[in-house]
């Protein structure tokens, strides 16, 4: 495992472990960043240690102690003592003994605005950069950086506790926590930048956290729905890329390669949600994923049912992105012209998916020149190399159609 892989897999846990001892997110994050910077030189010289994660956490703890000693205030000495005690203390036990989940609930405290809760948690736990988070929120990088700094300061100044809240306090936090896990999974499933289509570490971490949330809140149908959605979506992973890592769209995937065990588990969760009769956005999206997983081939997809589910989703959680995805389903039922009319009514020109969908619909309508221009826009806005390469291949194929 190289240093980049360790960073992606362990950054959030290291920050969470340090924060438990320090009670200061800024200091915890800075210490972990210093540890990774030190690893660049140390690991290049001596090679990776047997336990890379342990090396990072130990080094970060030592860096934090050094900084606290330099500050030499009474408060810093107390924090240093806590760190020294934490070095040899047994693991903290509890109903959900997981530092990363505790940190999510700390960041998702009702004292913070929901956008700040989600942004801060994505930064600390999801391993997302500030530009990646800004893209997810459709806002500027500077604005997002300020939002994250203010949120960390408020946690420190308000003394927000580092723990999973009591059962009575969970409903006030659940919306933001589920949003965080969902966005972590999305960034893993389609990476916002880089050479690869996916970040498997983020997908696996989101599913792990989803399972913990279901364990913590077994009667929360949206937690069940989110886990079902992630499992059913992740089931397609073996068929999403070709031998060279190239993107394979849903309609062209070899469904015999989909993970049958994940499909069975996800569909069972969807049935459990349906029995509760309290539909929410994640449950509805999970039901859509179940419709796709039921179809042995793309041509057998029940698109009428998918459109109905999108109509339901628009009722409970309307958004331009939902409208865009609904347009894709409408195009399968009523034809590409109907889908294009819906797409062209949306103001999503800064999203690569908007241009990619327009390009595909224009291609299907035989409007090659317009399709080429839309593909060019999609390529310009696409975040990762795999998506850009796929769009470039589709654009090049226009001449042969």
Automatic annotation (TrEMBL):
Q: Where is the RNA polymerase sigma-70 region domain?
A: 7-72
* Alphabetic keyword roster: Sigma factor, Transcription, Transcription regulation
> Could you give a GO molecular-function term held by this entry?
sigma factor activity
What biological process terms from GO does the record include?
Answer: DNA-templated transcription initiation
Where do the DUF6596 domain residues begin and end? 173-273
Give every RNA polymerase sigma factor 70 region 4 type domain span: 104-155
So which domain of life are we looking at?
Bacteria
Q: Which family, according to UniProt?
A: Belongs to the sigma-70 factor family. ECF subfamily.
Name of the featured protein: RNA polymerase subunit sigma-24
The organism encoding this protein is Spirilliplanes yamanashiensis
Upper classification of the source organism reads: Bacteria, Bacillati, Actinomycetota, Actinomycetes, Micromonosporales
